[in-house]
Amino acid sequence: QVQLAESGGGSVQAGGSLILSCTASSVGLRFCMGWFRQAPGKEREAVASIYMRPGWTYYSDSVKGRFTISADNHNKTVTLQMHALRPEDTARYYCVADPSPCGSSWHRPKYDYWGQGTQVTVSS
Questions:
Q1: Separation CA 12–CA 85 (nearest Å)
Q2: 77 vs 6, 24, 97, CA distance in Å?
Q3: What is residue 119's three-state secondary structure?
Q4: Hey, how many other C-beta atoms are within 10 angstroms of the C-beta on 124?
Q5: DSSP label of 109
Q6: Strand extents, DSSP E, 14-117
Q7: What is residue 75's predicted lDDT score, i.e. its pLDDT?
Q8: DSSP letter string, 40-53
Q9: DSSP secondary-structure letter at 31?
Q10: Nearest-angstrom CA–CA distance, 40 and 66
Q11: Helix, strand, or coil here: 94?
Q12: What is the reported pLDDT for 27?
């Protein structure tokens, strides 16, 4: 069983930055880890993922160019740097992990493991 511990959420004004981190209790180098988010009244959506060992990254169109995902394989940690934040980025962000390549289905909620989530609020 993999446990995911998220940190780094908070409140920021539009245009600001936040960094989210997720540390896994035990993941292999062939894991796909990433972030989903869900705002009240909206569907859950994929934000970004990374295939740990090769470091291949995947981004949704809504965050591409503003968010950067990276992995520290030694510490089993994935970091999401969020810049140029917008009010529409407000949501609860969930760390996810799956023992398979991210692949073309990275944006689907196929992940075996989910964190409890951390709130990100962006005010205008």
A1: 8
A2: 10, 6, 11
A3: strand
A4: 9
A5: S
A6: 18-24, 32-38, 45-51, 56-59, 67-72, 77-82, 91-98, 113-114
A7: 87
A8: TTS--EEEEEEETT
A9: -
A10: 22
A11: strand
A12: 78
Report the alpha-carbon distance of residue 60 to residue 114 in Å, rounded. Answer: 19
Q: What is the pLDDT of residues 20-65, one digit of tens each?
A: 999 999 877 789 999 999 999 999 999 999 999 899 999 999 999 9
CA distances from 53 to 31, 50, 102, 117, 122 (A): 8, 9, 11, 24, 32
- Quote the Cα angle for 16-83-76, to 5°: 120
Number of H helices, E strands in the chain: 0, 11
DSSP state of 88: G
> Using an 8 Å Cβ cutoff, are 115 and 95 in contact?
yes
